[in-house]
Every structure is written in C-alpha cells, then in structure tokens.
Design a protein that fits this description.
The complex is a heterodimer.
Chain A: H1 3-12, H2 14-25, H3 28-42, H4 45-54, H5 58-76, H6 102-106, H7 115-123, H8 127-138, H9 143-150, H10 154-173, H11 176-181, H12 186-192
Chain B: H1 14-35, H2 41-53, H3 56-76, H4 82-98, H5 104-112, H6 130-153, H7 165-180, H8 197-200, H9 202-205, E1 220-227, E2 235-243, E3 249-258, E4 269-271, H10 275-278, E5 282-287, E6 290-295, H11 299-308, E7 314-317
Parallel strand pairs in B: 4-7
Antiparallel strand pairs in B: 1-2, 2-3, 3-6, 4-5, 5-6
Helix pairs in contact in B: 1-2, 1-3, 4-7
Classes of the chains: A mainly alpha, B alpha+beta.
Chain lengths: ~200, ~325
C-alpha cells in the first residue's frame, strides 16, 4: 500500500478516533491533542510498517494507538488510574431468597426513555469502562476485536463490559427522576417484583 | 436452574441458594452473549433450552440489545470538529512532503536501483530478486482491482454506508479550508487544466460531463484532484477562485462524487449539515449517479455559485 492510500484510509476513521479520544479524555482540547498524536504516530515509518504485519483493519489499529497513547500519557503524568475490578464481585449478583437478580430486574427497563440520564451515568464512569462501552455500543466491535485493541484476554473484555453495563444500570435505577420519568414507583416495583419471576 | 422456593417460610439451604445464584449468573451471561451475537454453537443450544424453561430470558436479551442501542446513541453523536480534521489532513500532507523517504516514487526508485545491487547491500528491498518483486507487484495490482470492485459493488446495502449530513459537511468544510491556503503545494491536486478534467476523472464524472458544465461563471479554475468524500464511490475536488462584490478574492470548492445511494432526491438541492458543522455553506444535489457539493465562505455565495452550475432549487436540509 502506498502512503497516500494509507493516509486516505486513516483519515476515513477520523470521526471514530476522535470519538474514542473524546470519551477517554472527556475534554475536547485533550481529545484533539490525542487525535493528532495518534495520526503522527500512525505515520511514523516503523508503525506504518507494523500496520501491514498486524492486520485487523485500519480502525482497530488506530484505536490501539489511541488507547496506548492515552494510557502512556496518564502514566507519564503520574495519574495512572486505579485498576478496575475485572471479575464478578460476589455482591454484583448476590440474590436472596425470593429476590430478583439485578440483571433480570433490569429487563423491565425502557432504555429508549433515558438518554440524558444515561449520558450522565456514562460520563461518571472510569475511562476503562467508557472506552469498552464505546467500542461495544458505538463501534459495534466483537469481543475478540475489543480484546485485540485493549490487548487483554476475551474473558477480561466480557467481565469489564458486564461491570460497565451494571454500573450504568445501577446508576439509572437509583435515580428517582429516571424512575419517575418511566412511571416506576421504586417501592411498588420492589414489592411487586417486576423481575418476571 | 433458578426455582421459586415453594415454602417461603422455610428458606432455601445455603447450597441451593449458591447454586441458584450461579445458575442465574450463567443464564445472564448467556443472555448478554446472545444479545451481542457472541454465543458459541454449544452455548446457543444451552441457551435455547434455558429459554424454554425461563421465557423471561427473551425479555432480558431484548433489554440488553436496547441498552446497547441506547449507549450507541448517547456516545455516538460526537464527530470530529472540522478544524481538527483540517489540521490532521494538513499535518499528513506536510509529513509526506518533509519525509521524501515515504513517498511512493522514492520507494519505487529505491527498489529499482536494487537491480544491480550488491550482495552486501543493507537496504530492505535490495534483498529481493526481480521475480519476487514482480510477483509482489502483480499481487498488489490484483488486490487493488479486487478492492476497487469491492468498493464499487461491495456487499450490503448502499444505504447502510450512507454518511450523515454532519459527516459530509465536516469533511467538505475541513477540506475546503485546508486547501485554500496554498493549493499549489498540495499533492492531491493532480490536474490544473480544466480542459483535461473530464478525461482525467472519467471514473467519477462519467461520459456525460463536459468541461463547459464545470465552468462556474466568472470563477477561475485552480486545480482538481481525487479526494475522499464520505460514503461509497470515488470523488474529486475542484478548486476555483472568484472575486466577490467587495472585490475580495474568495475560493470555491466543488466536490463531485459518483454514488449510487439515494441520499438526495433528483431535482432537489439541499443545505448539508447543520449550522455548527457547515454554517450553511455547503449545498449538495444529484444528477443521475453523480452528486455535486459546493462549498464557499458564505451561504449567499454558495447559492449564487449553485445557480451558475444550474443546480436545482433548494428543497431543505440534509
């Protein structure tokens, strides 16, 4: 592939790379810096050559560079994020007798009515969780593809994604304004067990 | 599997509760994987059996899908600002000009000089004999042909790949501003004689478009070259300059894309993008399989230029 074709392919994914950068940094200015860094790195001859060897497509490759750049910058700044819990916390799914499991309880949730609250809930997550939600929810990547970008095992992708989804759902279901908008009275909901049991 | 305790007064034993919880976790995991299209064949069979026992799993799976769509809506509306797009594209161009070792012609020249290369040569390409390079070149050409055919006739509906107005406006505005500074330095502009444009870009313009149809009133043609308008189909960028009513020189960009999707209704022109992404400076319309986009510094000038190109009447925004 000649360099111009390579560049053209890379530029096609500017929106996606900026989206990832924006959701990682939560700052338009820092996102712009990160995007420029990604494209500068991508065009270095050593990384450019790696692209052909690595396979997996241009978008995934740019995402990997963005991911690595973001976390290496954090490390340099001494702001390494605390590691997220990768495995199921027993309390996540602890179910008492006669109680609905949280996920089964969520099944009654109307996700089409909560965009504003959902945005806020996502913004409050750690970058690792925002990142995986983006790769999964917006970019539509498979677990295997996400694992390659983040350079973690598939099991870690599944558990991190589960944690992210659960954190978001928990935030929404504890927000009285959301429940009110959905016409759900928390008390009666708990009493009646709208879990489909 | 999860079972209701038939006698609430007599709590489940701890072992039962633990097994029940594990079963639930396993079922939830299967429902999530099913919603994500990630079930293995064995898991899919297990999940189908479980759904027969627990019909509510269907609802859980559907909820997980809804959540994914909601996350997509909430996080997906961010797009690259046009100024950043222009900076990145300018940066790529400068990088290429400042690093001649990355230019295709330089790489080819290096390969060519290897024909008589000595055994001790250290350069990578010199290690390959002529027949291997010829084979690699043939493979590259074959791949390119396959790629072009795929891009033009690829699978899936064209509608699914249709860009949004914001994406189009972001690209056009960014590219317009990047190019008006010093078009003579940009490698993308390969044609500077308007007479030769129809023949040079036949793949985009087709057989019907003549030089006269690319004239923009009093505007002076500067250059044209291939570009990457979002969406399927090859595209070109033509740059012109014109003097406005104040005697100031202003640039006009005309993008042409060969495209089969139905993004515009024939006989109608549209303002592309919203105020934030284009400021109303981009107008697009379709003639057959060819789509035209005009970009200038003001909405008024864009409309004036669109008239000069016999564009249809504005029918709304895209």
């Amino acid at each position: 592939m000649d360099r111009r074709a390579f560049e053209a392919m890379a530029v096609e994914h500017l929106d996606a790379v900026y989206r990832l950068a924006y959701h990682l940094t939560r700052s338009p200015e820092r996102a712009e810096e990160l995007v420029q860094e990604v494209y500068l790195r991508a065009l270095r001859s050593d990384t450019w050559e790696n692209f052909a060897e690595r396979g997996g497509g241009m978008r995934a490759w740019l995402f990997t560079i963005a991911h690595n750049s973001f976390y290496s910058d954090l490390k340099k700044e001494g702001r390494r994020p605390s590691p997220v819990g990768e495995f199921y916390d027993a309390s996540d799914s602890e179910v008492g007798p006669g109680e609905a499991s949280p996920a089964w309880d969520r099944a009654s949730f109307d996700w089409d009515q909560v965009d504003d609250a959902l945005k806020t809930a996502i913004e409050e997550l750690k970058p690792e969780f925002r990142e995986i939600l983006l790769l999964w929810g917006v970019e539509g990547l498979k677990y295997r593809e996400i694992a390659e970008i983040l350079e973690v095992p598939i099991g870690t992708v599944m558990s991190r994604l589960h944690r992210a989804r659960k954190l978001v759902a928990d935030t929404l279901s504890s927000d009285p304004s959301v429940l009110e908008r959905l016409g759900i009275d928390r008390l009666s909901r708990d009493e009646n067990g709208l879990a489909g049991r | 599997m999860a079972q209701d305790n038939p006698n609430p007064a007599e709590p489940n034993r701890p072992d039962d509760r633990s097994r029940d919880r594990l079963d639930r976790m396993a079922l939830e995991r299967l429902a999530r994987c099913a919603a994500d299209g990630e079930l293995s064949e064995a898991d899919a069979r297990e999940y189908e059996s479980a759904k027969a026992l627990h019909p509510e799993l269907e609802r859980l799976e559907s909820s997980e899908r809804s959540m994914r769509r909601a996350v997509g809506r909430c996080m997906g509306e961010v797009t690259c600002p046009s100024a950043l797009r222009a900076r990145v594209m300018g940066m790529l161009d400068r990088e290429g000009m400042e690093r001649p070792e990355l230019q295709p012609e330089t790489l080819l020249a290096g390969t060519g000089s290897s024909n008589g290369g000595s055994a001790g040569s250290e350069a990578g390409p010199l290690r390959f004999p002529v027949w291997k390079r010829a084979l690699a070149m043939a493979a590259a050409v074959a791949l390119l042909v396959v790629g072009v055919v795929y891009l033009q006739n690829g699978p899936g509906t064209v509608q699914a790949d249709m860009p949004t107005g914001i994406q189009l406006a972001g690209y056009m505005s960014g590219e317009h501003h990047r190019c008006i500074g010093a078009p003579e330095t940009l490698r993308k502009f390969t044609e500077r004689d308007l007479e030769r444009v129809p023949a040079a870009f036949r793949d985009v313009l087709g057989e019907q478009v003549s030089t006269e149809q690319l004239l923009l009133g009093d505007a002076t043609f500067i250059a044209a070259g291939k570009c990457r308008v979002p969406g399927k189909g090859p595209s070109i960028h033509l740059l012109y300059e014109v003097f406005n009513s104040l005697g100031e020189r202003v640039e006009v960009s005309l993008y042409v894309q060969r495209c089969k999707d139905d993004r515009f209704e024939p006989g109608k022109a549209y303002v592309i993008g919203d105020e934030g992404s284009s400021g109303g400076h981009v107008i697009g319309w379709r003639h057959g399989e060819v789509i035209y986009y005009l970009v200038t510094g003001t909405p008024e000038l864009t409309r004036d230029m669109a008239d000069k190109l016999n564009a249809p009447q504005l029918a709304g925004a895209f």
